[in-house]
Amino acid sequence: MIIEIEGKLARKGDDYVVVDIQGISYQILVAPIILEKLHGIVDKDGKVKLVTYHYMQQDPSKSIPVLIGFLNEIEKDFFEKFITVSGIGPKAALRALSKPIPVIAKAIDDGDMKMLCGLPGIGEQRAKEIIAKLQGKVAKYGLIQDTGSKLSQKKKGELFKEEALEILLQLEYKRSEAENMIEKALLRSPHIETTEALLNEVYKQRKA
Predict the structure, then answer these.
(1) Are 132 and 170 found together in one domain?
(2) Does 148 reside within a domain?
(3) Among 198, 132, 133, residue whose Cα is nearest residue 161
(4) Residue 205, CB half-sphere, CA atoms under 13 Å: how many?
(5) Contact predicate 54/43, CB 8 Å
(6) Cβ distance 7 to 19 under 8 Å?
(7) At what angle do helices 195-207 and 153-170 cross, to 10 degrees?
(8) What percent of the chain is helix, strand and coil (3-state, nearest 5)?
(9) Is the residue at 107 inside a domain?
(10) pLDDT per residue over 156-183, tens digit each?
(11) Closest Cα partner for 206 from 174, 182, 176?
(12) Predicted structure pTM score
């Protein structure tokens, strides 16, 4: 059972990260809200530490080991409570965690159907089941301090530039060359706010 992973953050996808540990790469699924906060816990050497939930996904012909990552034990604890609700498996729970855990916990405690139905994959019947199963049992998760979920504009700017740099390095550009391309792209289009737009501008420069 793998309960914790610490290594170099090799890359990120829409719903996962890849962590390299001495040449062995682990794919770890992460919830949207946790992926958003991940930038704040990567150290100066590019290393990250995640608490993990490890389970076997059963397919008709095989069992596939799956790792799900969290920033701390209390996030994992909330996730484990969430999947006790009938019909909510680990991957469904992961998709549903699109808002900060304290916000979801408060909605459960308040019986806020509207908010719960707004979570990906959670319809009215499932929201009722969540409230019936967990109301009165998740108050402590509402105390989680959510300081990292909303990045400042400066932090967001740093994040999309770093993501663009990471992609260019994966495409085998030298770091100095990649940084120079990004700087020129931002000088040409200073209002860029996303990784995709920045890379498109870099591409235009290379064609010019």
Answers:
(1) no
(2) no
(3) 198
(4) 18
(5) no
(6) yes
(7) 50
(8) 50, 20, 30
(9) yes
(10) 556 778 888 888 888 888 889 989 999 9
(11) 182
(12) 0.69
Compute the residue count for the chain.
208
Q: Encoding tokens for residue 101? A: 């855990």
**What are the DSSP calls for 34-72, one per residue?**
HHHHGGGG--TTSEEEEEEEEEEEE-SS-EEEEEEEESS
- Is there a single domain that holds both residue 104 and residue 198? no
CATH code at position 61: 2.40.50.140
Task: Note whether residue 200 is domain-resident.
Answer: yes
- Among positive and negative, which fits the CA dihedral 155, 157, 159, 162? negative
Are 13 and 110 within one domain?
A: yes
Residue 152: what pLDDT? 43
- Residue 36 and residue 106 in one domain: yes
Q: Measured between alpha carbons, how far is residue 145 from residues 75, 103, 140, 170, 189 in Å?
A: 11, 11, 11, 34, 36
pLDDT confidence tier of residue 208, bands split at 50, 70 and 90:
low
- Among 114, 14, 97, 9, residue whose Cα is nearest residue 53: 97
**Number of domains comprising the chain:** 2
